[in-house]
Amino acid sequence: MRIAVIALGKIGLPLAVQFADSGHDVVGVDVNPQTVDLVNASTEPFPGEAMLQEKLSALVPAGRLRATTDYSEAIPGADVVVLVVPLFVNDTTWEPDFAWMDAATESLAAHLTPGTLVSYETTLPVGTTRGRWKPMLEAGSGLKEGQDFHLVFSPERVLTGRVFEDLRKYPKLIGALSGEGARRARSFYEAVLQFDERPDLARPNGVWDLGTAEASEMAKLAETTYRDVNIGLANQFGIFAAENGIDVYQVIEACNSQPYSHIHRPGIAVGGHCIPVYPRLYLTTDPDADIVRTARLLNASMPERLVKQAEGVLGSLEGQRAVVLGASYRGGVKETAFSGVFPTVEALRERGAVVSVHDPLYSDDELRSLGFEPYEIGGEIDLAILQTDHAHYRELTPAQLPGVKLLVDGRNATDGSQWVGTPRIVVGTASVPVNADA
Fold first, then answer.
1. How far apart are CA 236 and CA 122, in angstroms?
2. Among 166, 180, 314, 356, which residue's CB has the most CB atoms within a 10 Å radius?
3. Rounded to an integer, what distance in angstroms lies between the CA atom of residue 422 and that of residue 433?
4. pLDDT tens digits for range 173-231
5. Taking the model in full, what pTM does it have?
6. 433: closest CA among 385, 420, 304, 238?
7. Left (φ > 0), alpha (ψ -120 to 50) or beta: where does 150 sit?
8. Residue 182 CB burial class (10 angstroms; 0-12, 13-18, ≥19)
9. CA 346, 348, 351, 353 torsion: positive or negative?
10. Which residues are catalytic?
11. Dist CA 115 CA 193 (whole Å)
């Protein structure tokens, strides 16, 4: 097959590589000339994706994968076009911002030719494929969906850093607008993906047709919204436990020993492109989902709550030297999308603290470009707040943070035995440090 992939980001490029590695001819389209040049030079544009560089080094010289900024070069005559352009959400209104996706769809429509299957993999509000993309593609191309071309929604379900592993592990969900579109989508994804055996699933791992685009759209929103709501519940339990001298981790471990309980862990923040965003997309089409809204607001409040706890122990934070450990939204990943570092730093600055940030994955210049003053381990500090569960921090000791008066561990990542005698708050446990008396 001849396949075009629109947007060569952290999901799109591995998808393009996966398709090419399965024996097909792939052209990637991206608006960033630097990304295009790097791909054509067999160089990964971003670090941290397992096996990506190795596969690029083999596929690009072999002529199976190339990149361009020109839609007219990639779209006409393609058997399949896969679009995975980012969709943003307004921080204030929680409304989706379709600007980038609209622009990409209009460019795609202008060059669409008969016989093409178009698959959207970007997570969408329910009804978007049928209500927005179908009329836009038809208007821009002069073609008829279901007759001249076919449209399907098939959400990406992978985590950056392990995309190729996840593509094998999880069923590929599809929801088309017609029976022929569903047939074409199943045939396409079965030709470009390979699946691990999953005896734990009710049906064989592979391509799962959910019957409609709307069902497929909702499935992606539901699986990610579930995680946000579950974390919100864990945070609610953690707040109560901390106020009542209870270790919430013992409680959660006890609950999850029973097979019908799957409580997640509390934490200072929920970050990344997915979990904090998709509940808001869900709420745009189900505004009465109060449980979803409450969980999202609670999770968003956690940085402020933990900074307030620190203030309760230390008193005024005015002039205090505070370091936030971790800029990334999760451990081992160099990505700050919706990271808790931003509201944590803001809450500290609002209280007059002198704030710096440390992250082993970022250079000082990179931290400065994010608006942070870099911190070097070993520098004098009064307060440390662990925001990211990098492996680098798991053996952290007071000696590495000279002068530290309080550690707020927002991920329960540090070893309490290393902090005997130094006040330490762990999210979800009593706010009065107990190991100072150990």
1. 31
2. 356
3. 8
4. 999 999 999 999 999 999 999 999 999 999 999 999 999 999 999 999 999 999 999 99
5. 0.91
6. 420
7. beta
8. buried
9. negative
10. 220, 274
11. 21
